[in-house]
Structures are given as structure tokens and as C-alpha cells.
Design brief:
alpha/beta; ten-stranded mixed β-sheet; 11 helices; 10 strands
Amino acid sequence: MNSILLRCLVACALLVGASMPAQSQTPAWPSKPVRLVVAFPPGGIVDNVARQIQPRLQAALGQTVIIDNRGGAGGTVGSMEVARAAPDGYTLLMVFDSYATYPLVYPKLSFDVAKDLIPVTQIASNPLVLVVNPKVPAQDLKSFVSLLKSQPGRYNYASVGPGSSNHLTAEYFKAETGTFVTHIPYRGGGPAQQDLLGGQVEMMFLSAVLAQPHVKAGKLRALAQTGAKRVSAYADTPTVAESGYPGFEVNSWVGMLAPAGTPRPIVDRLQAEIHKIVADPAFAARLQEQGLTGIANTPEEFGAALKQEQAKWTRLVRERQLSLE
């Protein structure tokens, strides 16, 4: 009996010993710097959130996190680069809500948004704010809608291009209010805001973060915000839903994706670390000051949200026969 027990113990020891080299050969992640590709130029909301997250994520991972701005073609240039990267957790992607409309706007993309990239987490969201040039003779949404109805086609709205969130939100608004406003697309947020401030266009659905300094300076007037409830940075500005259009809700967001095939433990680690960051009271307060709300949802929740948005905007484009060229 003792000899049998001894043989069993020896066999177990050998098995444990044999497993140790295999485990030691599996590299821990991360063991080198992580590249965070921001699919837009510096200065925008995606870059803003990335640079707020970067030092905290770097500390949490114990490795350098390098921000690499790869703007172009509405974010598709940077997205394509990450879609083609090795799925090892060392190349990640930061995108805007326009990611949900890529298949609509760019039907000939060289990568598949549903197959080549996987969701990690949405990091933060903020409502869009309907802002008008101060020359517009309307102080609230109700009077503005009346003004638009009294002069159909008289007023113009700016967007950063066909299929962008401010384009589709404005068309959604027109459908809900029964108004007609002419779309003036621009090749970027800078030129669009410049003409809005100058009065060449009268209105725009602008990210709450980007609108805030202009509203505070009195250079733009905020009439409504598009979220389900007011954010503290715009506590005195009612939502579109509160202003007589229940159910109207649009939120701009920033999220992180990874190349398809990235190991699930790495995805889970990233989501968990970002969740800790946005849950920190000091960091959450900083986001709220800018009109942002931390999310850090699961990959499954992020994926479901993407599908809902894609369905919503696809339906709008088809019903209103919008040109996205």
C-alpha cells in the first residue's frame, strides 16, 4: 500500500514539474509598450478622452501606453491599420460614435467592422448639444422649431460630413419636428465650427465637450441637449425630449476596440482596468465637468450597443433617402 502511494506521489510531482516550463514560456501581458491608435487628429474628443485615460491605464498596466494619432477618412484609416494588426493586445483602437455608421458611409471599406475588430469597452459618452449662432432670434427649442417651420429652407445646419453623428442627428431632429433645414457638410469640425461662429451657418448638433467653451463665452447659444437626461455641465439646458419630443435620444461616445482574435483575458483585463479608472470619483468628476459620463461597459454590452445604433441609423438613412456621398 505504501509503495503504491509513493508511486502516485512521484507521478504527481513529475506532472507538476513538467507543467512549470510550459507556464514559464507563456509571456505575461503586457511585457512591452502598448500602442493606442486614435483614429482622429489631435484636439478632438477621441484624442481628449485618450489622453485623459492614458496615464492611468499606463500605471495600471505597468507599461508605457503610446498614443498614436492616425486620422483620415472619418476615422477609417486608423481603424483599418488596427484591423490589420497582430491580435496580441499591443495595438488597440480608440474610435468615435461614427464607427457605427462606417458600413453606411463607406460601403467599399477594405476591412469588415463586424469581423475584423472586436469591442473592448465604451469609455465615455456625452450628449450632442443643439447650438445656434446668437444672431438666430430664438431663445429655446420651442421658439426655434416655430421659426424653422415659418421659414422652411431659410436656415442651414453644419456637419463634419455626410454620415457623421451631427449630420444624422440633425436629420433625426428634422424628422421628429417636421422642419426643413439645409445640410451644409464640411471636411472636419474646425471649418464647421468656424462658419457656425461666424454666422455662415445657423445651427449644429455639436459634442457637448466641444460646444462648452463657446457657450460659456456667449459665442453660441445652447437650445437643447440630446441625451436622455441632462448632464451637469449643461444643467440649465433642457433635453430635446423635455422640450416636447419624448423618446428623442442621441449620445456621442468614445470606445476602445481590438483586432479580432485578441485573447479574451487581455480584453477582459483592459475592460476591468478602464472600469476602475472611470469609477474613480476624481476622474468621474473631471469627466462630468466636460459634459462626459464614464461608461466602461462589457464587450458584450458594447457590441449590442453598436448593433442597435447601426440598425437605428440604417433605418433613418433609408426612410429619409439620405445621400451619404
